[in-house]
């Protein structure tokens, strides 16, 4: 029997130019998570078999980069802007094969640039910035902090604008994530405020794990601040 590869090719249609291309994905049976950081960053048994590396699709034809969280439709005026700002500057390259951490970072940065032009939801943009921060964490580089700060600002914007409501992000998880990212970036007072908002909802929600995580982090912060 042939050895089954952890990778398979997914056929993608570009949202911008409509050309088809392939991009590697990882079979779920090969994904082994050892632990999660407090901001939900997964730590995989094998770093090279990390789905985070392959979340972004980069069209080799036009350069438009996106994830499954992007809305599918692009209005004509935005399409013209993407062509002007992305496609006209695109130097054909292939992101569809195995990726290093740095190649994944580059793909996410391309996707975040496209997301800003396309005016994707704040929650989608925040998720891109957060995953860039995770990848820098995997590399042990200080750039992680910059992207955590960018992520938390977009999550706060998303929370106040309610644009996360139709996403997979629950309000409780949003509040917790804002609090944890504020804690990680040294904004302790603001972090305590958002952790408190999570704990206040303990009687009305079923996400007990997040409530307990918030309470633990709140208690640790109070010790640091006193």
From TrEMBL:
Pfam families: DUF2225 (PF09986). It comes from the Bacteria. InterPro entries: DUF2225 (IPR018708), TPR-like_helical_dom_sf (IPR011990). This is DUF2225 domain-containing protein. The lineage of its organism: Bacteria, Bacillati, Bacillota, Bacilli, Bacillales.
């Amino acid at each position: 029997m042939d050895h089954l590869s952890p990778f398979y090719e997914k056929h993608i249609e570009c949202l911008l130019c409509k050309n088809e291309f392939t991009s590697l994905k990882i079979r779920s049976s090969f994904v082994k998570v050892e632990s999660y950081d407090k901001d939900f960053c997964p730590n995989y048994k094998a770093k090279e078999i990390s789905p985070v590396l392959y979340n972004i699709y980069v069209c080799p034809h036009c350069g438009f980069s996106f994830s499954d969280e992007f809305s599918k439709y692009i209005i004509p005026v935005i399409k013209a802007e993407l062509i002007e700002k992305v496609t006209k500057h695109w130097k054909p390259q292939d992101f569809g094969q195995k990726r290093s951490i740095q190649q994944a970072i580059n793909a996410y940065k391309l996707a975040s640039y496209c997301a800003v032009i396309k005016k994707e939801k704040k929650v989608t943009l925040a998720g891109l910035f957060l995953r860039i921060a995770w990848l820098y964490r995997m590399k042990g580089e200080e750039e992680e902090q910059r992207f955590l700060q960018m992520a938390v600002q977009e999550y706060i914007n998303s929370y106040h604008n309610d644009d996360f409501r139709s996403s997979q992000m629950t309000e409780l998880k949003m509040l917790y994530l804002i609090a944890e990212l504020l804690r990680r970036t040294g904004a302790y007072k603001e972090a305590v405020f958002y952790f408190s908002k999570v704990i206040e909802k303990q009687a009305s929600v079923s996400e007990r794990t997040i409530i307990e995580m918030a309470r633990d982090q709140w208690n640790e912060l109070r010790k640091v601040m006193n």
